[in-house]
Amino acid sequence: MKFSGPVQGHWNTPEGTDKANEYAEMSRDDLAMGNMSDLELANAQYLVSRDSISLLSYQTAAKERIRWLSVQLAIARHHLGWKGGE
Predict the structure, then answer these.
(1) Is the pTM here over 0.85, yes or no?
(2) Does residue 34 contact residue 28 with C-beta atoms inside 8 Å?
(3) pLDDT of residue 27
(4) Can you give the pLDDT at residue 45?
(5) CA end-to-end span of the chain, whole Å?
(6) Residue 18: inside a domain
(7) 72 burial class (0-12, 13-18, 19+ CB within 10 angstroms)?
(8) Per-residue model confidence (pLDDT) at position 20
(9) Which residues of the chain have pLDDT under 50?
(10) In this predicted structure, what is the pLDDT of residue 46?
(11) Which residue of 18, 33, 36, 45 pairs with 62 in a disulfide if CB–CB is 3.0 to 4.6 A?
């Protein structure tokens, strides 16, 4: 699915629409740490030591996952015909 205009939520800028289209084309496996489930990634990010060198990797993977999930939610809403605020 391609978003032609602003996407509801925090994607409602021209740059956000481009980023949303980029994430719409990706699968979970394309993301950083895509082999982990959402729950596994959330727990790993929460439990990683703040002094660990891998902290930035987990934070980046979590940020990408949240963005990807946000786009997947927008796609699902579109397919269901949900307009929001209902």
Answers:
(1) no
(2) yes
(3) 94
(4) 94
(5) 23
(6) no
(7) middle
(8) 83
(9) 86
(10) 95
(11) 45
Can you tell me the distance from the alpha carbon of 18 to that of 40, in angstroms, rounded to the nearest whole number?
28
Q: Is 12 part of any domain?
A: no
How many CA atoms lie within 13 Å of 13's alpha carbon, on the beta-carbon side? 4
Taking a C-beta distance cutoff of 8 angstroms, is the pair 45, 52 a contact?
no
Q: How far apart are CA 17 and CA 45, in angstroms?
A: 27
**How distant, in Å, are the alpha carbons of 48, 56, 62 from that of 53?**
9, 7, 16
The identity of residue 73, as a single letter, is: L
Asked whether residue 10 is assigned to any structural domain, the reply reads: no
Q: How would DSSP label each residue in 34-78?
A: TTS-HHHHHHHHHHS-TT-TTHHHHHHHHHHHHHHHHHHHHHHHH
Q: Which two tokens stand for residue 1?
A: 């699915």
- Its domain, for residue 46, covers 35-80
- Amino acid, single-letter form, for residue 5: G
**Count of domains for the chain:** 1
**Res 28: pLDDT:** 94
